[in-house]
């Protein structure tokens, strides 16, 4: 395991210049799965000599995941300013609440992956005390507000699985 991925700049078949959103979403899924598996292995390593190498590999995977998530946001044309919680898409801007901005940013960074209300409360807002009804209210309100910039269909409901971003994002003016 030592130094296994240190010399890799990308995995075979990876192309950061791709403009295909489904391909980008696929790479995000691959790196999320790799990170999940490696975190599980690290939790079982219990101070083995390979622990440091495993953590370095995980850091590399997390860096690649961040690169792919940034690429997805770039291609989607959706920009969320983390300081003033402003969404920009297709030449239009929309001021969001901090919770709305965090929720949308989280979903956009995990395309094609549904999350339950409880997962969203914990992962997007780091608040496991929010009820399912409160999360649903935020989702409904955000979906309604996104209509102002033409993104009303971006947040989808996946029956019996939760909420996600599955719709392709391409501004009308870019078509």
Sum this structure up briefly.
With 175 residues, this protein is mainly α. The chain has helices spanning 21-45, 51-76, 98-108, 117-123, 132-146, and strands at 79-81, 86-89, 92-95, 155-158, 162-165.
Describe the structure.
The chain has 175 residues and is mainly alpha-helical. It folds into 2 domains: 21-76; 79-168, Orthogonal Bundle (Arc Repressor Mutant, subunit A). The chain has 5 helices and 5 strands. Strands 1-2-3 form a 3-stranded antiparallel sheet, with no helix packed on it. Strands 4-5 form a two-stranded antiparallel ribbon. A hairpin with a 4-residue loop joins strand 1 and strand 2 (86-89). Helix 1 runs antiparallel to helix 2 and helix 4 (117-123) crosses helix 5. It is globular and about 55 Å long. Residues 171-175 have low confidence and may be disordered.
Task: Let me know the average pLDDT.
Answer: 86
Name the shape in a single word. globular
CATH class type of the largest domain: Mainly Alpha
**What is the CATH H-level superfamily of the largest domain?**
Winged helix-like DNA-binding domain superfamily/Winged helix DNA-binding domain
Order of helices and strands: HHEEEHHHEE
> How many structural domains can be distinguished in the coordinates?
2
Structural class: mainly alpha
E-strand count: 5
